[in-house]
Amino acid sequence: MDIPRRNFLKGAGILSASSVLAFSQLTAYAHEKQKLNIKRSLRIAHLTDIHILDKPEVSKAVAGIYTQLQSMKDKPDFIINTGDSLMDMNNQTKERIDTLWKAWDHAAATHSFAVKSCLGNHDVWYLPKEHAAYEQSSKDPLYGKKWAMTKLGLPQAYYSFEQKGWKFIALDSINYNSEKGGYTFGQEQLDWLTEELAQTSGKTPVVLFSHVPIISVTPLLYAAQRTPILKMGFPGGDQHVDVMAVKSILKQHPNVRVALSGHVHYVDHVAYLGVNYYCGGAVSGNWWNGVLDDFAPAYSILDLYEDGSSHYETIYY
Predict the structure, then answer these.
(1) PROSITE patterns recorded for this chain (predicted)?
(2) Residue 64: how many CA atoms within 13 Å on its side-chain side?
(3) d(CA 163, CA 215)
């Protein structure tokens, strides 16, 4: 992929005016909470769609984000990465994927944050059967989701953990069902989610995170940029087609307060039935080719409060 050098990383390491405004809004919201004697429980950096490449410009950009995070007065407690960590593991040889993971490790070595991740569609090693390397690669123990799970430290494809009074549930979106027309969690995972929430105290606020949005306006607008409105169907390639099943589960658990996602490379915030659905902007923007439609490269900061409220700001770095 050719990466334009002109203006690429111009001002890297220096906060833009929009970034300064975003940080000031975080501070203002925190001050309002302090007036009400409501404490912040956690600050989380939300990074998504990094699409790391073995290019010095990309390494510098990603390392620059980590530098910004570490230089914050109130540093994040940890990072949530909602997938598409590598540029692409689909249709790639083992040698190429190994090169990309080395680029990932190089960037990761520039920070000391704990990182919690979920899988993106480009984090799956997949080759079509007609590919010359398919027979050998498909027998490799790292084939499929395993390589990314190992590198990202996922205990399972979907899992949960708790920190400072909040529960976090990482979900696996990457189960494309062609008959249903898009991405699903699958019944086994939905059963697990139902049980996980049933075993969680109703007083414990919950954050879900997945790669593909559960509820978002961004898939519709992304599609509308490319397809005549009257010909558009449900955007199952960019939003969960089992959304109604998930909604039914979450409606029974009002302590689920936040759902993070990425995938679309757009930014939005949908508040629906008590859940704040935040779709984060892509670190890579237009796959390291500048702005995608109206959205520049970005990452976000999520503040979580002890009363279950949240505040989310996007940093166009």
Answers:
(1) TAT
(2) 23
(3) 25
- Angle, CA of 117, 48 and 211, to the nearest 5°: 65
What is the model's pTM?
0.90
Domain ranges for the chain, please list them.
17-314
Q: Show the tokens assigned to 295.
A: 């959205």
Query: E strand or H helix at 300, and its extent?
Result: strand 299-305
Q: Does domain 17-314 match CATH 3.60.21.10?
A: yes
Q: Tell me: the pLDDT tens digits for 21-61?
A: 666 777 777 777 777 888 999 999 999 999 999 999 999 99
d(CA 280, CA 283): 9
- Which three-class secondary structure state does DSSP give residue 207? strand
Alpha-carbon span 127 to 117, nearest angstrom: 23
CA distance 258 to 208: 6
Please tell me what DSSP assigns to residue 83.
S
Beta bridge partners of 301: 45, 313
